[in-house]
Design goal:
By secondary structure, the chain is an all-alpha fold. Helix content is about 70%, strand content about 0%. The protein is built from three helices and no strands.
Amino acid sequence: MAEPINSTISPWMPEQDRVRLAVLGKLAEEAGELASRAARCIIQGIDETDPDTGRSNADELGREIADVMACAAALEALLRVNYSKQRVTDKVSGFARWHCMIRERDANG
């Protein structure tokens, strides 16, 4: 017996506002570019030079971070999407603890 359609198809309707679509689409694009650049830094090395631009992968990574941060600012300004500054602080603190754990493990073999 076939499953009822309501249980298999989401009732959500896609965003229709063109400005919201533009802001969210740009965020998705820039986040993808940041992820791609981070992968390139892992694969090629963060200090290596991008042959297309002549800039280091670190510089290119910084550019992509700035692009994502600009999108975050647009989300705050245009869509009133706020993010928790405390969450950012907690994440930075958690990352610092994690990095210490990695260094300790490397030091202790």
